Amino acid sequence: MGMDRSRVAAAFAVISLIAAACAGADDAATPPGRTPDSTSPGSTPPGSPPAPDPTPGAVPFVPGEVVRFDAPIADVAVTESELAAVARADAAFGLDLLGVVAGDDNVMISPYSVATALSMLLPGARNTTAAEIAAVLHLTGDEEAMHRVRTHIEGALASKAAPAGEEDTREPFVVRPANSAWGQGGYPFLEPYLERLATSYGAGLRLVDFASAPDASADIINGWVEDATEGRIEDLIPDGVITTLTRLVLVNAIWFRANWEVPFDPERTAPAPFTRLDGTTVEVPMMHADMRTGYAATDLFEAVRLRYAGDAAMVVAVPRAGSPAELAARITADDLAVAWGDFQVELAMPRFEFESDVGLKAALQALGMNTAFVVPVPGDDGTADLTGITEPRDLYVQDALHKTFIALDEDGTEAAAATALVFGITSLPQPAALTVDRPFLFWIESTSTGEILFLGQVTDPSAA
């Protein structure tokens, strides 16, 4: 059965980091050495008037115009240990972040998306500001190696799946990551920082006019995000977040769609009770399948691994006791690398669909990333130091925004995901049964890279 795009299972994650100049800062001319590309996505249509110069003598620009470096995104090789270290760090960061934002409601985050955006910010940070970002990201190794791994992950996620046979009627496996950087035309961004964004993250600087047209600039960025996520994420940046003092916005977006390798039979879906955290029950459509797949039972949870028809898998983990958030707080990044047994699983789990709008700024501050959000004071290391982005110490992070959406049904999921490895087991599978009728933790993982793309909890499948 093909996937219904009007309600098909889906998940998206987007983060933006907004750096704003302090009042009174002077904007300088756009540095040389870059080539504008006004035909790139997000450009203002031909015939639109150029934006006014933010300062006398600044280079005129067209809002949405892309400025790219000569160097293309790097084609890099990484070691297995480097890839594993970043994937483990992102998983640990994801568990930390979920622990801060998870309450009693459905919620989902994208460790991949938030970590990528923070990694785009890191090369521009200095001193305490940089140290706090690195600590939140669990970055203990070489920063240069981390950027190489990010480039590798972007390429791995964007790789197209092998074509299915003519008899396969399932929707093609698709994952689409995208990064972008939006800067004030005429602001003195440093060339090494812009080159890092371009070569490691494929994010050529897009010029906009925050100074004179903040609302119109927000509309341009929101339109790019909507396009990048097939319309699933709208209005990422709310009214009033971008001001006339904003100078930079960094954005990561990821969109994914895939069928289950073994779909659920819609005719077996039937109403069944689901017990909420408070002990009350709600009737939800419960899907059923009998499949040979990975199953694990530990002292803390029971889990099943659901493969997609492509390079990704979803893990559903039901706590032995307590809430999914409490389970996330007790496990480590290594626990997400479950030792799967080969089982014939009789599975029952609910359909669900919800979206999350996470207060990311407060969450990052709670995790120890404080300095980047403090208005800079020269000579004070307790305030933002983003002098790797621009020489004047006048930038700080105004806000951090994160939105996700997920829906899951009998056909599959349209979500963030990456590669999957399928193992051929020759031994006979053991029997197992799992009925997901109470709150559970879930994550979507890239099998080949080990990257945790989405991490969330479902406490009430009936709540949209």
Short description, anyone?
The chain is built from eight helices and 18 strands.
What report would you give on this structure?
The protein is an alpha+beta fold. The protein has two domains: about 10-45 and about 60-260 and about 355-405, Antithrombin, subunit I, domain 2 (Antithrombin, Chain I, domain 2, 2-Layer Sandwich); about 260-350 and about 415-460, Alpha-1-antitrypsin, domain 1. The chain contains eight helices and 18 strands. The strands form two sheets. Strands 1, 2, 3, 5, 6, 7, 13, 14 and 15 form a nine-stranded mixed β-sheet that branches. Strands 4, 8, 9, 10, 11, 12, 16, 17 and 18 form a nine-stranded mixed β-sheet that branches. Helix 1 crosses helix 7. It is elongated and about 65 Å long. It starts with 10 loop residues before the first strand and ends in a 6-residue tail after the last strand. Mean pLDDT is about 75; it is low at about 1-15, about 20-60 and about 415-430.
